Each structure stands twice: as structure tokens, then as C-alpha cells.
Amino acid sequence: MNNFEDLKLYFMFNMLYYLILFQFIIANNFTYSFERNGNLEILFFRINKEESAFNTLAPNFCDLYISFHESFESNHEKTRVFTYEKNNFIGFEILNDFITSSKSLHKYERGIIQCNFELSYILRLSKDIAEIPCVLNNYQFSCILAVLKRLKAVENKRLFEFIKFLIITDFFLYNNCLNIQEIFDWALSLEINVQSSNIILSIIFNFLMLAHVFYDGNLIILENTSEIYDLKVFDTQVLYKSLLVNNIKVFYSLENALKNPQILETFKSMFSMLNIRSIVLYNNQRSKILESDFEFPMFKIDGIKSITIIDFREFSSSLFLKRLRKHIRKDLEVLKFQNTYIDISTLTTILKDQRFKKLVLNNGGIPVFFHLSNNFTGLNQSLKCIDFRNVTVDLDWWKKFFMEANVDKIIIHFSIQFAQDAFIMAFGFVPFPSSNNVTYFKVIFDNPQIPTSFFGSLSCLKNLRTLKISKYLVSEAIHSRLFEVIENFKVLKCLVLRKYGYSKKYYISLFKNPAIENLHLESIFQDSEIFIVDFLNYYSSLTKLVLINIMICQSSFIEIFELKKLTSLTYRSCIVEPKINSEPFCLKSKNISLLTINSNNLNDFKNIDLLSNLETIENLNLSLCNLPSGYLSKLSLLCNLSLKILSYEFNSLNLNDLQRMGKLETLEELNLRGCKFIRINFCKLNCECKFLYSLKKLDIWLVRINNEDLKFICNFRNLRNLTLTLSGLDLYALEDCLILLKIYQFSTHVNIADRGFIKLFGCLNEKGIRVIRI
Description:
By secondary structure, the protein is of the alpha/beta class. Among the domains are: about 1-155, no CATH class; about 210-365, no CATH class. Helix 13 (about 395-405) packs parallel to helix 14 (about 415-425). It is globular, with a radius of gyration of 33 Å. InterPro entries: LRR_dom_sf.
């Protein structure tokens, strides 16, 4: 009975399969058979249909179905239409697997393909791109991409030459109807890597003659590839990416290009593919802006959330910004002006009808008396974050803002006394209606002598989770009021205090809030008061600790390394007093991802085993510690797959250190600036080095290297940023090395009297290598 039921199910399954197949064949009226001819080629045949012109429009979409069979018999006539070989210009993974598999691995010798378009024509294109017609319509274009997707085109240089030919010949030169979005959709459907996606985009930018660079998913458009740009303009706290237009000349070029509707559509698709939601316009040369009727098409693209304007300080910038204000989207969330001259009337007009969530004014160009009108109720209620740096806002504006605001993040940096006084006076009217909403408060004072009343107002921000106060002068009164406030912040997680001066009671009563997880304590000048705190009993929840220019007692110093939840520790220019001999101890936390220790007081660390427990370390900085050779060799072997950044400046290294370093498999940045190599050279890494393909940044400035070292450096295939000393090197060999590696940025000293140096730098600039002079 069971056998009969199984047989019955088998026949039902096969009938269902062939019924579905039959229905598919009816819907897709092009049928091809193919068969393997040894292990060299695949023969394709058209079944019972004459070749048709490749311009028939399908009703909705292009589709293709492939199946393999032990045998495929047909009563219909078949005509041989194509022969696929291993060296086909465009390779296909599915066909390559079929042609190279032995019978034991691939039991089928034949197969069929059903589709609703003329496949033979596209197969011929895959062998010879010269067959591509001068004009393609959307349907033909979709069919080509469907074949590349379904047969899994091999991702290599040839494929992108093919795509380049399609884009430039058929898209830019002859057609205005093709939808560039299909190219991006195709790329996404294949889940090709970021580098390959960038290649597709580079084809478009090269055609438009726009120099460009991709950095961490962001797109930078430049006047030339050697132009300097500032990576700090990118906001790493947001999920979306940015377009940086690096100077006003590039903006002019884009403005003209985007007048073409097809190119504008291309940019819209590109923004969507790269998740670009932010535009940064940077006049890095502070050029005079020509009078022109700009249309700002980029700023109108759907989905743009943030606009940043930087270094528009010339008087001519005013007219430019007046025109810009007409084109700012009503749904824009973030507006930033940095180092930009903008007159009050223009700024007022921009802010009047907007509902930004974040407003950043960071410059010294805004007039001292920042008299804004009172018509910003809507804006005040929508703002979630203000970031005012070196900007003077008057008392009345602050009062109205605090009464109407619904803000949860406040960042203020004062540069003059008047601005500081106005803010503190207005802040004294708290609690304001939304004071309980504020979770982030950061202030940098101009005058370090601040009134104690400020801390009384601060105490009304009951739900603060982050508090950062910088450049204030410690006194007995300030210390007492400040730490009373800190004790009462029940949900405070992050505390940053950067101070002048000291108080005898400053450290003793500092730590009264065990909820703090992130603590940064810094003296702007070296402390003379000893830091005493019971970490283990009160602050065992700390995950991040930063101590800079602090004098610390030895018991507290030892307890730092016993904090088991610590994931990040920075200890810089601190002094341990008094120095008392202690038993050897080690770093207890197993979860340290960042460790920075910069101290030349080796006696402080002689009894500490810092390295053996670093099992999850990602960023290790032991620079300026004057560490002896052999020290790095103690690094835990368990971090070989986690450590990405190693900074070891001005220490000593021997063969054991290099051998240990060479076992790091994921290292991306290596800084050995000023290191002393004991009876070895940098090239000795060669035998053991596991990070040849992961390293992106190498700094060996002030390290004596020779041509053998340079030859070894050429093995770092993904190196993009190199800093070294030129002394003793063959400049021609160096040039060849930098070009071979496709170095993006090269930093070194410059001898302006040496013509060889000047010639080298000229050649590097021509090759698009950015030269930074140290």
C-alpha cells in the first residue's frame, strides 16, 4: 500500500511539474535547448521558431526560465544559434558550472530555456559587444539585464566594460528614454559588492568628466583627484550617507550637468542606491561666487534630509544663499551653516517657514548681535537639536526659545563673554516647559569663571543622559554645587568634565552616581591634586573611561584595571602618586575593544600585564610609551581576528614583535611612526604577515627604510594611505610602488631644493595621488 501511494504521489508530482512547465512555455514563446559538447562548449538551439527582430515590446516584463534534463527530445525542428565557450567575453556562472562539471557532479547533459524575448541575440552580444545597436529601447535594455541576472554574469572587468558600453553608447549618446534606475536595480538584485557598485557609478561620472572618490559609502565630487577634502564633514551618527561637493567650481559643473533631465534622473537613482540623504556644499578654496541664476536641482531631489553649507565667507556668498533659500525643501530635517557669512534677513527668511529637527550654526561670520524675529514658534517647536558654536545669540531669543522649544539635545560653544552671559541668564529661567525632554547637554565656556546659579538651572534637566562641560574653573563653591547636581541625575550615563584648576575636595566627592557608564575626566593643565576614588565599590558599571592629565593615587590606578565591564580605556599623560610597589596584576576585562595608553612613566606599568587578556581588542594605541623591544610580542593570540588599528609610535621593536604583529589577520591601520627597529628591518614582516590584503593605512614616518622594505610594501594590495620618510630611497622605485598600489594619499617631508622630489610630486599628482607635505 505504501509503495502504491508513493508511486501515485510521484506521478502526481511529475504531472504538476510538466503542467506548470507547459503553461510557462505557452506564456514565454521563445524556447531554446542546449547541450554540453564535451568540457569545452555549450551548443544552443532554437526550437520551432524563426529568429525575430529584437525590438518586439513585451506587455509587462522580461522573464527567463532555465532547467536541466538528462535528455530533451522534441519533435520540432531546431536550429543552432549560438556556441558558448569558456572564454566567452561575458561569462555566466550557471553556464560555467555546467560546462566544467564532470558527470558525477552534474548528471544532466542537456537543458532548456524558455523566455519571452529573443535570447539568441543577447547571447551573441555577450560574445561581441560590437553587436550592440546604437539605439536600445527600454524593453531591449531590460532583457539584457534579465539575462545577466538569471544566468549570473561573472563579476569582472569584462562585465563592467560591457555595462560601460551600454551606458555610454546607448544611454548617454543616443537615447533619452532609457531608465537608468534599471541598472541600479540590476546591481542591487545581484547583491554585487560595494566596489562593483562604485565602478558602475564611476562610468557615469567619468563620462560627465567629474573627478570623484568614494569614502565609507559617501560620495565626494572634486575638481581633480589630488584635491584635499575634509572627512570630518561627514556625520557618522546618522544611518544615511552624504554627497560632498568639494568646491564651488564643481558645483557649477554639476549645476550645468543636471539641467539635462536624464542626468538629473540618474542622480536621483544614484542617491537612492547609495542611500544618500545629505548634501554638503564646501567652498574649500573660498572662491568668489559668480552671479548666476542657480536652480539648485540637487537640493530638490526627494529624500534629502540634510544640507550643510561650509566656508562661504566671501561677501558674494550672500547673494548665493539668498537664492538657495528659495529651493530648500519644506521637509528638510537638518540645516547646517559652518564658517559661512549669512546676513540676518536671509537667515530669518530661511528659518521662518521651516520645521527643521536640527539646526547647526557654527561660525564666526554671523553678526555679533543675533537679533532674530519672534516668528519662529513653529521652528522652535519642531527642533530636537541645536548646535551653536562661536555664534552670538541675544537674551530675548534665548528666552523665547526656552519657553517654546521641544528640544532634547543642546550643544553650545561660546567664543565671547556677551554670548555666554546671555545664555546663562536665559537658562536661569528654567524649568522651561520642555526641560524634562533634554537628554543631551554640552557646553564649552569662553570665560571659565561661571556663576554657581548655572548649576542650579542645570539641575532642572532631570532626564539628562549625557552631560559634557568644558573649560570651567574649579573652585570650592563650583565643586560643591556641580557634584550635588551630578548626584541627582538618576539616569545619567555619560559624563565629560574638562576643567581648569583643582579643589582639595574635587575628587573625594566626585563619584556619587553609580549609574554612570561613560566617564571622561580631563585637566586642561596638569593636576596637582591627587585623584582618589573607589572604583570597585561604586563604579563597577563603567564601560568607558578616559583620564587625561590627571594625578591619580596608586590604589585607584590599580582598580581601573580590575573593572570587569570596561570596553574602552584611554589613559593619557597621567601621573601615579605616590609610587608604591605592588604585586603583579592584569587587565581583568575580557571585553576591551579600545585601549589607549600614552605615558612615558614605565614604572607605572611594570607590574601590569596589559596585553595577554586583550581577546576582543579592535583599536590598540600604546604610542609614546617608550616601550622596550619584545613588549608587543606578549599580545594575546586571541585578538588575531579582531584587531583593526594598531598605533605603536616611538617604541622599540625586535624580530619577536614583528613575528607577533604578522599574525594579525584583519589589521587595517598600522602606525609605527618613529619606532626603533632592533637589528631588523620592516621587510622582515614578509615571512609571517597575514594582513597583506586588509591593511589600508600605513605610517612609518621617521623609520629608516631601504629599497627592500619598499619592495615589501608593494605586497599590501589594498593600501591606500602611506606615510614614510624618503631618505635613502630610490625615487623611481617609490613612484612605481605608489602607482602599482593605487595609493590615494601619500604623506612625507618635502625638500624644495631637490628637483627629484619636486618632479616626483608632480608625477604623483598627475596620477591622481594626493600628496600631503609633513
